[in-house]
Amino acid sequence: MIRKSYFFLLITIVLLLQSCNAWKNVNSNQMFKTPKDGSFKFDSLQMAPSEDYKIGPGDRFLFLFSTNNGERIINGLSGVTGSSGSGQFMGQNTQNVMDYLVRSDGTAEIPVVGEYPVAGLTIVQLEDSLIKILSKQFQSPFVQIRLSNQRVIVFPGRGQAQVVYLQNVNTSLLEVIAMAGGISNDGFSNSIKVMRQNKSGKRSIFKIDLSTIEGIKQAEMIVQSNDYIYIDYKPRIASGILTEVAPWISLLSTSITLFFIFLRI
Q1: For domain 60-147, which CATH number applies: 3.30.1050, 1.10.10, 3.30.1950, 3.90.550?
Q2: Which residues pair with 167 in a beta bridge?
Q3: Amino acid 32: pLDDT
């Protein structure tokens, strides 16, 4: 009888320990939590980036070049006879789009120009620099740079994260959320965090509230490449604990059944 008591005591201790672990593991996939005491201070909301995006290592871009202020490009797009349209973006109108990588040392291999330092420059600065270089060999060069990998990462609440590629530089927060599939059923529309890297390399963190009509202005916030957008969501405490302890409940049920079978023998 004493051995049977030890048996039940052991099972009880195991279940208690597992319940404690289950509580710790509930919604352990939540990210970017802020202290519940309200001590964390969000940064002042920026409706638009404080400065133009600067090209950095790992970026990719399309390169458009033509002479005579882009005359051949216009002729090519308009279908003028005898124009080759060779000044268009490399592969822009085909399936084989060619872009150029910014290497880890900040340089890129650019057609006609060769290896050139591009990291730290805005798109406009790079275009102006290339025009000056190409002006030495070509008449009235026309240059246009288009970044091809500008993107933001969206966590729309409970569910799959999304990498959303920006089609233009004036993409709003609401557009990005829509492209990511909207806010999930468990998501909090009044608790959206936008994390943006600043000049010092750290990230400014802004809190957005889209739960009321007054939030329409915040919804028009312009996002920037490499922003993180995280939508807080309601934790499922009951179902989470049940999922964690279900195997142990099953073990307890089986143990009790075996115990009573043992008593009858």
Answers
A1: 3.30.1950
A2: none
A3: 76
Q: For residue 131, what are the contacts with CB-CB under 8 A and spacing of at least 6?
A: 141, 142, 143
Residue 12: its pLDDT value, please? 60
Distance CA 192, CA 206 (A): 8
Q: Where are the domains of the chain?
A: 60-147, 151-233
Residues facing residue 213 across a β-bridge: none
Q: Which whole number is the average pLDDT over 241-245?
A: 55
Domain 151-233: CATH class, spelled out: alpha beta
- Decide: helix, strand or coil at residue 101: strand
**Phi and psi (nearest 5°) for 58?**
95, -20
Buried/exposed 39-69: b ≥16 CB within 10 Å, e otherwise:
eeeeeeeeeebeeebbbeeebbbbbbbbbee
Q: Is residue 196 within 8 Å of 204, Cβ to Cβ?
A: yes
Rounded distance, CA 42 to CA 152, Å? 20
Residue 126 near residue 145 (C-beta atoms within 8 A): yes
Tell me the C-alpha distance between 95 and 204, whole Å.
Answer: 38
Same fold, 60-147 and 151-233: no
Is the pTM higher than 0.70? The answer reads no
Beta strand 142-147 with 114-117 is unpaired
- Give the contacts of 84 (CB within 8 A, at least 6 positions apart): 72, 76
